[in-house]
Amino acid sequence: MSMNSFGHLFRVTTWGESHGPALGATVDGCPPNVSVTPEMLQVWLDKRRPGQNKNTTQRNEPDAVKILSGVFEGKSTGTPIQLMIENTDQRSRDYGEIAQTFRPGHADITYFQKYGNRDYRGGGRSSARETAARVAAGGVAREAIKALAPQIQIKGYMTQMGEMEIDRSRFDWDAIDTNDFWIPDAAAVQDWEDYLQGLRKAHDSVGAVIEVVAKGVPAGLGAPIYNKLDTDLAAAMMSINAVKAVEIGEGMNAARLKGSENADEIFMGNDGQPVYSSNHAGGILGGISTGQEVVVRFAVKPTSSILTPRASIRKDGTPAEVITKGRHDPCVGIRAVPVAEAMMACVILDHLLLHRGQIGENQGHIG
Ligand SMILES: Cc1cc2nc3c(=O)[nH]c(=O)nc-3n(C[C@H](O)[C@H](O)[C@H](O)COP(=O)(O)O)c2cc1C
């Protein structure tokens, strides 16, 4: 029974644990003759890499990716691509104390209840180290998208971190890549940093909201009912560690709106393509892309591994107080941004391939 794979035609299987020798992804279904080199994938891994600044975990991993198969002379061959990232900066002694106890808010208790054992070092398979493998796979997906639909651009950013929220009237697309928080407002960075450092000093952590947008997605991707584009996107984002809610377009806020406010009006554009007055739908209607921006948003919970003592129990059922030492992200939302982009890339590529398989050039045309 495989529970470690996602995707239909572009299928990704990840493997490995936080403190094992290595982790990685097997990427099956990548079209042949796509340019893929370790350097191309490394760009995205470097974006997610821990230990880069004081706002993320101080675990220092180079996250250097090796391509073991499926690529010859810099091009995908059409066979499975095996990606491997070695773990080099494990510090398992930090986890000695949680071998017998369960961290409140973490997966220790449920892994034990299910499997009867667990690799407690760094959280084992429940650690977000696993997301490095997704980011590497997402790098392959991005290169395949570039070959099939080069107009598509994928970008993620934080919109909220605890009490801090972006001011959308100041949204600056170009600012996103210039700061540690991936926020679209350079002037707000210092406030966000002060806020997070305050929480870190208080031995606490905080949640966040991440938005990820795919621009240039053609109309027609997705399918009705069980493999809606939004179904697959929601599953992909919800599969990221610490994610507790996913929205498409207006999301939960749609419950507040009237039909007259929410329905995006349709007009015929000069280039023969429909244009919409707004994008409450988040670029998806009936599970199928409209040609507008695909907009997905999700919330991550505050990091559960904190230095503030929390009540818990031991494996033998006796009460315990847990203080989690080790190197942890004070807000996991920061490093979740490149992970979200990778998941978006994998899902969009998967649906480009599905669309090509079922519809090819025979798409419906208006006018
Ligand atoms: C990029 C990223 C980094 C994370 N870093 C940490 C961390 O340093 N410490 C921690 O306790 N949880 C961290 N998490 C969250 C845990 O992996 C997650 O809470 C845990 O697996 C339990 O799963 P759940 O929160 O989805 O229920 C991180 C999550 C992400 C997405």
Automatic annotation (TrEMBL):
Pathway in which this enzyme or protein is active: Metabolic intermediate biosynthesis; chorismate biosynthesis; chorismate from D-erythrose 4-phosphate and phosphoenolpyruvate: step 7/7
Keywords attached to this entry: Amino-acid biosynthesis, Aromatic amino acid biosynthesis, FAD, Flavoprotein, FMN, Lyase, NADP
Keyword Metal-binding applies: no
Pfam families the record matches: Chorismate_synt
Cofactor(s) for this UniProt protein: FMNH2
Binding site for NADP(+): 48, 54
Biological process, per Gene Ontology: amino acid biosynthetic process; aromatic amino acid family biosynthetic process; chorismate biosynthetic process
Gene3D superfamilies the record matches: Chorismate synthase AroC
Keyword field contains Signal: no
GO molecular function annotations of the record: chorismate synthase activity; FMN binding
Top-level lineage group: Bacteria
Function summary: This reaction introduces a second double bond into the aromatic ring system.
PANTHER family, A to Z: CHORISMATE SYNTHASE
NCBIfam families given in the database record: aroC, PRK05382.1
Name the UniProt record assigns to this protein: Chorismate synthase
Naturally occurring in which organism (per UniProt): Epibacterium ulvae
